[in-house]
Amino acid sequence: MENLINTIQLLAKPYHSPEHAAEVIKAASSAKFVLLGEASHGTSEYYRDRAALSKRLVTEHGFRLIAVEGDWPSCYTLNRYVKGYDDAGTNVREALRDFGRWPSWMWANREIIEFAEWLRQYNASKPEEEKVGFYGIDLYSLWESMDEIITYLEAKPGAESDLIAAKQAFECFEPHDRDGQRYGVSASLYGEGCTDEIVELLRKLQHKWKTQGPHVDREDALSLEMNALAVIGAEAYYRTMIQHDAESWNVRDRHMVEALEKLMDYYGDGSRAVVWEHNTHIGDARYTDMAEDGMVNVGQLLREKYGVDDVYAIGYGTYEGTVIAGRSWGSREQVMKVPPAIPNSWEELLHRAGPEDKLILFDASTAILDEITLGHRAIGVVYHPERERGNYVPSVMSKRYDAFIYFDRTHGLSPISNEIVYS
């Protein structure tokens, strides 16, 4: 390992701040998709760094679309706030009101407040066609998206036939008491799914934004389609997850790519996106043990479709610190200790190479790393520090990412919640 540590010392550069990250910004700026990862969903440094890099990509290189690992309905409320729409609430905390479902801290936090306020200020002086949007591309909003579709169609003059179709499509979900897993059991084991109904609904609703006039109406029509897409994605996810863990993962990541592509279509020719998701989604799955289980992810799918020149993936990691997470799904969020990385993991070797924050750009000069597989820490919304060894994904780092940003010590982010406890 000493030779590898020496190699890391030669390749890594001190990372002082995103304001001084000219090399990585230059390398990423020509891509169509810039993917910004995170090694947890609860670390302040990852959120702040992604925000700072995103600001530079927006102001210096014309990126106009921020897509995140969040639900469409709640992120769309925040999107309307940052774009300055009249019905979006008078302050950012009001605009975050829809991030109520666990894990709410992922987006209802002070780090996002700061970024949202910057986006709103940036957009204030821009014409509608130049404003930067903030959107969720995940699929967990099955019930919320159905509610949004009904609300939209009820308020839309002349939408009576679409409203009837939507209500008929959603009737088959009613016996499941707004419980995705309960629906999944019924659909997977007993064949009582709603696939045909919602596919037909999506067919009816898609591309309606293309026929709208004023910009706000176009984006609301886009939201209608994106909510329908979320319903069809969530239905497939819950139906699949009961029996096929790997395939349900694939359903989710394929959905996120499709949602991202619909946003790119909406923004038009030449549009480019910054994507915020966990490392496990943006770091090419072909260079991890995920591939052995037949799993794909967003980073892989985008590289395969658009080519490596149009996709730039930046991973993140830390040696130790604290993180916001829960002990079980739905439990109260806690500030947990992130223990020192396990010996001979990627993060531990970066620490031994020197305790300063680091940046590594992977290119032809780092080919020596291309045959080396190392454990790379991944912390989810549910975390058990005492079971640390199970949190590492074997990865060829120089193939999985285009660049990697390492923070030697990190801190839990700042949720907008009075229920935080410490452990």
TrEMBL record:
Q: List this protein's GO terms for biological process.
A: response to antibiotic
Signal peptide as annotated in the record: none
Source domain of life:
Bacteria
InterPro entries in the record? Emycin_Estase, Hydrolase/PRTase-associated, UCP036794_erythomycin
One of this protein's Pfam families, by short name?
Erythro_esteras
The name this protein goes by in its record? Erythromycin esterase family protein
